[in-house]
Each structure stands twice: as structure tokens, then as C-alpha cells.
Design a protein that fits this description.
This protein has 300 residues and is of the alpha/beta class. Helix content is 38%, strand content 23%. It is built from twelve helices and eleven strands.
Amino acid sequence: MRLVVTMIAAGLDRRLPQLAARVGKALAVGAEPDWLATDEACDLFVDASEPGAVVTVARAAIGDAAVDILVQPVAGRRKRLLVADLESTIIENEMLDELGEILGIGPQISEITRRAMNGELDFAGALAARVALLVGTESRLLSEAAARIRLTRGAAVLVTTMRRAGALTALVTGGFAIFADPVAGQLGFDRVAANRLEIAEDRLTGRVLPPIVTGATKRQILLGLAAELGIAPGAAIAVGDGANDLPMLDAAGLGVAFRAKPLVAAAARHRLDHADLTGLLYAQGYLKADFVASTGAAQL
């Protein structure tokens, strides 16, 4: 099987040519790397039957260098569907944690978040427990929390470039629509799926309106969108950081754990630990010259 080994440095790293040479030697690659971006990202090509074994050899060759390595079949590398998580992926924040900080109960909420994202707690139960702590909160504070949203570096370029190339993009989150919808509008996502908080008389009731977006839901949405497009799930790329993202990462042709929790990083076939979200474009063989900057909010 013909495999492509993509190496992505954390920003401009003058050592990448030497590191790529080490990997090429370890894998007995005869050709020079194909550079996607000078000193930032390159491809090596190898014939092998086990991508996981290739990753192991390549990572051993670079030691502790801040370089991501993704290995996948060359065939079908460019994807036609992007499904992305929101919190700690497309944005840097965990929004219930932000709201908890505003309310002075940050530690209680963030500890539940941490355990849920690392797979120590059932996601739906952890979500209900965190939202229950918000009962009676004035709904206006949701806007205050939303003002804290920080986009992850590379998010806008990722979405805009893939849409320009004809891919469908979906933001699918176990978080809340009041935060997801504005982000989706700003970045131009084609579809959004998110949970909804129950509000009565301008206060949170402490409940989430059904149906709940869970890890299983994320997988079902990816499979449904692939069917709608008439493509195999292998033609999709998915990205997320938490345990509830693993079902969709496993279903996608290229499922990438992004700066993920330890359990997720260990379980995912592919991961980005150092690069920003443009690493997902390099993984698909885009040149840096192909990247398209965001032109602002798009109509959904």
C-alpha cells in the first residue's frame, strides 16, 4: 500500500529538513521530501502495509521534536467533508467553564469537564451535572461568556479553504447553540449541530433541551452527511479533542485528535499535538500557497 507520511512543524522550524531526512532514512525512503511549506510541512512516500508501524518508526526518529506526523494512504487523501468539534478545537475555550468562572463556580464545573473529556465520566450525565449547577443564572450572562470566545489559530483558514475546494463543512458539538451558532456564522460552516439550554423568564432552568448531542450523535451526523453527499465515510475528515469525539474520529477516513486529552490521543489513529488547525490542510496535501484566508462571516 502506498502511504504518505506528512510531517508538520510547530510553526517555522529550520530543523525540519534534517528531521525529515532522519525519518526518510529510518523508513528507507529514497526520494527527497515534497515540501508543502518550506521548513514547515512536507510529505514522504513509502510502501508499507501498517500505517501505525510507520508512525512508530517515524516518531522514534525525531525524538521529542515538536513535529506532528500523520500517516495515511495516498488514495483518497483529499477529503470532501469536514466535521469539527467546537470547544478546545475550533475555539480555544470550554464555554461552560467560562460561564462557571463568571459565576464563581469555575473549579466545580471545570473538574467535571476535565473528567468527561478524558472519558472518566459519561458525557450526557456530566453535561446534565454541569448545567444543573447553573440553575437560576440570568440568560444575559451567556452573552458575557460568548464575548470571551477565542478562535483557535488556523480555524478560519481551514474552513474557508475546504469550502473553496468544494467540501461541505459541519460544526458538531456537545456544547451549546448560543455559542456555536455565532462561531459557525463567522467562519462559514455549512451546518451546525449543538445542544440547547432551557431558559424560562430570562433565567437558566438547569436543564438541557432534548435531543442531546452525544458522541454517538456526532458519529451519526458524520455518516448522515456522507450519505447525503453520496460519498463514503472515508472521504470525510473529522477533528476533536474529547472522549465524546472518538466515535466520529473513528468513523472518518481521517479522524484527527487535536491537542487532545491523553486517553483520546492514545486511542485516535491520527493526532496533532503541536501544529495549529492548518495542519489538517497539510494532512490532505494542500500546499500553503493553496490556503485561502477568511473573508468574514458567510450566510448559512
